[in-house]
From TrEMBL, chains A, B:
GO terms for cellular component: mitochondrial inner membrane. Catalyzes the ferrous insertion into protoporphyrin IX. It is found in: Mitochondrion inner membrane. Gene3D superfamilies: 3.40.50.1400. Keywords: Heme biosynthesis, Iron, Lyase, Membrane, Mitochondrion, Mitochondrion inner membrane, Porphyrin biosynthesis. Its EC number is 4.98.1.1. This is Ferrochelatase. It comes from Wickerhamomyces pijperi. One of its GO terms (molecular function) is ferrochelatase activity. Pathway: Porphyrin-containing compound metabolism; protoheme biosynthesis; protoheme from protoporphyrin-IX: step 1/1. One of its GO terms (biological process) is heme biosynthetic process. Belongs to the ferrochelatase family. It catalyses: heme b + 2 H(+) = protoporphyrin IX + Fe(2+).
């Protein structure tokens, strides 16, 4: 069902054939226009197993990630992760079988970054060619695989674009940390100059794309009920110890939700809720499933909007569609899930605009990131993002300046 | 120190002398222009003891309010409230003594609503005169005192304007519920037509006033440190069982904070934190005091912004100024509290604009309020706000229509 179309599967192979611009052109005299090497756009996300056989390694990597989950056992986390992954694999394999045999996140991420790069080649010729890559934290292509590909492709300028619109140290932070760790190993001489787009919770492209999808979903309800349909913005939850540490995530999730409601002129009642709690620790609520159960009887209709993900994945296709709506709901006909952003052209235009603005601004990372890294508790990572991305007070020369 | 200036103390007395327009004018023939009775603008808030002797009754009323706090003892809540209030009174009396002998919330609320009404008389002549009132939930003037005054003054049209910018069922909900209960007793024939402004988390006046105060506070730091000063938006916390029930509050607090940062062009690092936790139950964090303690050493400066209150009160003047900064901080010189909105003209202009827009729109209550009331668990209250405010599908005739 979610098998990758051929043109997607070959995306990474094709990238390696992109023309390499000689970096030695920098040695030419100033009268000769310098060639540059283009710009890699790397979509970072948690990823998901594309096939059933990848489920165990996905779960193991996820539970072993101390940036994402602190299992409270220090250096024994990898051991405990093996135990948990082994125990959970049969159940999670069933979930992936139920949604067609794998996560569509690679398909959609590849499509989105390729399309964004096509737009960028037109809007930002000074930094072209824009080369699309995907780097996942817990599934292929792993961070180190993509990093090696960048090095093989002779990339010298790359944008690490977090596909979590709202920053959490446990998600975007983890991806950046991993990129840093692998850079230490694979690119110790730092041939690639990185910058990052580490959050974009209220970018107009994101907000408008969500609003469009909600409006379309509203049309599926009877006209007389439409204005009374409730909108539940559902984000992946986090444990309360992460929330209470001061993680940026819940405030940014709320900012996105509020911006979408503003775009909709607050036409409907709404609430921010949280899903996918796991384990015995307290997590942030209201819980999507419990809250839906509480309100479904008195509601004319409910739309659940996956507000913190940019494409479909197990939490939309299984947890919401199959568990919450098809299995557990008392009034399943009242509850619909908003289409994920997936191939939304509005969204992809927004992604391209974000990268375009980022490249033109010369910003290396957001003003907020050093604060997140100070509050976070990553192991084997930099103390300050400037160690990775360079001095924040200096900005990268824009590609056009480098070129001329 | 916070004694009320004479012109404030007499505000309520003066209001009773406002000219009463005869309601019998409605009986006149259609050719005769009808007189109307003006518009009462009622600022609702929790209030605070204006004198030390009011501390016990304030605490008792607060802990007895089942809409605010569920002590988990059902109908014995009043009894337990007496016990808690008695135990806490000596300590809280000390706090109020330390800030000058009482809360300034009545002084500021009276000033704000009077000034807003003066503006409204100019901008909205069709609904003039606008008559200023304050109704507190736990301190004088109590809801029932103010309601009686409205009735004595012959008011027939009133706006219940919640002075909590962000909606929580435990705050704004509690004030509306109390107004409903007292209306049942004091105005059973419903001579007053009420509407409510129940939330305004991102109103431009509010946002700009906070941004102005933050900019002014930033000037107190050395110029070279200014851009590195961290902004902590501190809101009163809520117990996790309220958060997990789906209360609107945390998302709206985040919306305000994000809007203020947007107004400031994200010039500084910021975080949303929560203060004033009490009792053994888990509350929403990050906790303002703990978080400040964690970051103060590495911070160049910190500004704490009371983002969920519209004037000074014990939580700013004692909890932040005296406890957090003057007593507990290791680096008190680095930490400053942003001025509360108090007498800010930008804020007061915004308040007037809010009421003006509300009156012109004919809206009775926000689209969101019925959902909040469905999720909330108030006792002895309406099932739907339309029972109090009328049918939401019909709007109140604007005062000008009534007049002509």
């Amino acid at each position: 069902m979610f098998a990758l179309p051929k043109q997607r599967l070959t995306a990474f192979n094709r990238l390696t054939t992109l023309k390499r611009f000689s970096t030695s052109s920098k040695l030419l005299g100033s009268q000769t226009p310098k060639k540059h090497n283009g710009t890699a756009v790397v979509f970072m996300n948690m990823g998901g197993p594309s096939t059933i056989s990848e489920v165990y390694s996905f779960l193991y990597k996820l539970f072993a990630d101390g940036d994402l989950i602190n299992l409270g056992v220090g250096r024994f986390q990898a051991l405990l992760a093996k135990f948990i992954a082994t125990r959970r694999t049969p159940m999670i394999e069933k979930y992936y079988k139920a949604i067609g045999g794998g996560s569509p996140i690679l398909k959609w991420s590849t499509y989105q970054v390729e399309e964004a790069c096509k737009i960028l080649d037109k809007t930002n010729p000074e930094s072209a060619p824009h080369k699309p890559y995907v780097a996942f934290r817990y599934a292929h292509p792993y961070t180190e695989e993509t990093l090696q590909k960048l090095l093989d492709d002779g990339v010298t300028r790359a944008v690490a674009f977090s596909q979590y619109p709202q920053f959490s140290y446990s998600t975007t932070g983890s991806s950046i940390n991993e990129l840093w760790r692998k850079t230490q190993i694979l690119d110790p001489n730092r041939t690639i100059q990185w910058s990052t787009i580490d959050r974009w919770p209220t970018h107009p492209g994101l907000v408008k794309a969500f609003a469009q999808n909600i409006k379309e979903k509203l049309l599926e309800f009877p006209e007389e009920d439409r204005s009374e349909v409730r909108i539940l913005f559902s984000a992946h939850s986090l444990p309360m110890d992460v929330i209470n540490s001061g993680d940026a995530y819940p405030a940014e999730v709320s900012a996105t939700s509020y911006a979408v409601m503003n775009e909709l002129n607050f036409s409907n009642q709404y609430r921010v809720v949280y899903q996918s709690q796991v384990g015995p620790k307290p997590w942030l609520g209201a819980q999507t499933a419990k809250f839906t159960e509480k309100i479904e009887e008195k509601s004319k209709g409910i739309i659940i909007v996956p507000i913190a993900f940019t494409s479909d994945h197990i939490e939309t296709l299984h947890e919401i569609d199959i568990e919450l709506i098809a299995t557990d709901a008392k009034f399943p006909e009242k509850i619909k899930r908003c289409e994920s952003l997936n191939g939304s052209q509005t969204f992809i235009d927004g992604l391209a605009e974000l990268v375009s603005d980022h490249l033109k601004s010369g910003q290396l990372y957001s003003k907020q990131l050093p604060f997140d890294c100070e509050i976070g508790v990553g192991r084997d990572v930099f103390n300050h993002p400037s160690e990775f991305f360079g001095d924040h007070t200096k900005t990268i020369k824009s590609a056009s300046e480098e070129k001329n």
